[in-house]
Write a structure and sequence with these properties.
Layout lengths: L5 E2 L5 E2 L5 H6 L4 E3 L5 H6 L8 E3 L6 H15 L3 E5 L5 E5 L7 E2 L1 H11 L11 H6 L4 E3 L12 E3 L5 H8 L3 H7 L4 E2 L14 E2 L18 H7 L4 E2 L14 E2 L20 H8 L7 H7 L3 E2 L13 E2 L6 H4 L2
Antiparallel strand pairs: 1-2, 3-4, 5-6, 6-7, 8-9, 10-11, 12-13, 14-15
Length: 319
């Protein structure tokens, strides 16, 4: 279990990375955005979870939960829906008559997903899917990686993620057709254009010599033995083109991160901020936490935290 501690710009600890680049670096599925989701605010939902985003596509985690539950109720015929003349969809509840307008594009995404199951009620588990001769079923929770609607294959994987993995990329399609160039989905980091790239080495046609050395600002700085480089793209956090550190990509335009004591752990932070927490030893083991506190005294009448592995009182060990 990963026990990384992250920090907001103001130095406050965070349970998740505070920007998408940090989330990618630590391979986290989610991160916190600076601002809450506009859709959640319009809906009247407030809280920390409305700032959580999926690292894969920057979509709101809270909206994904609501959307997946709406789709689940539509797929099992608990809700009905209607497309209005103004191009918005209103989802009606058979029980309380509530309705929610969404865009026409959103409606098409719902409709396309519903068409996978036909006109009948969608199966809700693997056994039912197999009985209906389907390779997938509907689930009330969204995909944990990207927030897709909760359609799972009989193997338990996300239906949409599996399709994306099985879909050939632009480069793979070019290789399959024997072509030497392909059009990438994103712009080149060096010339900031969406020019064709070579299938063998990924070099951009607009950047010049294919057989020459790689010329990204960071690679040039590394070859020159420099510690900082100036990127082409602005920083996603401070939105400025400021120097970045070669080793970890830290941006000079951002507020300097707080000095971190590498001896600080999730457990030491918890003991400091919640000295009166009650946590049994069994619960600590189940959660993978290295310390626990029952509130009862040790042989020296200490009532603080103890190590989960040995049960020894930490105050006694510290003398």
């Amino acid at each position: 279990m990963s026990r990384n501690i992250f920090y907001h710009v103001d130095g406050q600890p965070s349970p998740l990375p505070t920007d998408i680049e940090e989330a990618k670096r630590y391979r986290k599925r989610n991160y916190f955005d600076v601002a809450a989701c506009p859709t959640c605010i319009e809906r009247g939902d407030v809280g920390l979870f409305t700032k959580a985003r999926f690292t894969s596509n920057s979509e709101c985690c809270h909206c994904a939960l609501i959307d997946a539950l709406d789709f689940y109720n539509l797929a099992i015929n608990v809700y009905t829906f209607d497309l209005q003349n103004d191009g918005s969809m209103l989802i009606y509840s058979d029980r309380d008559g509530s309705e929610r307008p969404v865009s026409n594009e959103y409606f098409k995404r719902f409709q396309t997903s519903l068409n996978l199951f036909g006109e009948e009620s969608a199966p809700v588990n693997r056994q039912s899917a197999i009985a209906h001769d389907l390779g997938f079923f509907v689930h009330p929770e969204p995909c944990k990686k990207s927030g897709h609607f909760g359609i799972r294959t009989v193997k338990g994987e996300c239906y949409f993620c599996e399709n994306e993995r099985n879909t050939l990329s632009a480069r793979q399609q070019a290789i399959a057709h024997g072509e030497k160039w392909y059009i990438p989905e994103t712009t080149c980091k060096i010339c900031n254009t969406q020019s064709p790239k070579h299938v063998d080495n990924g070099r951009c046609q607009n950047c010049g010599d294919l057989n020459g050395p790689k010329t990204s600002p960071r690679q040039i700085a590394i070859s020159n033995g420099e510690s900082w480089y100036t990127p082409v793209q602005p920083c996603p956090k401070c939105h400025t083109i400021a120097d970045r550190r070669v080793t970890d990509g830290h941006c000079k335009g951002c507020v300097a991160p707080p000095t971190r004591d590498h001896r600080v752990t999730a457990e030491s932070t918890m003991m400091k901020e919640f000295p009166d927490m009650i946590l049994s030893r069994d619960d600590a083991r189940g959660l993978g936490i290295k310390v626990y506190r029952t509130g009862g005294p040790c042989r020296r009448d200490h009532r603080g935290f103890r190590y989960t592995s040995t049960g020894n009182c930490i105050e006694c060990l510290n003398g």
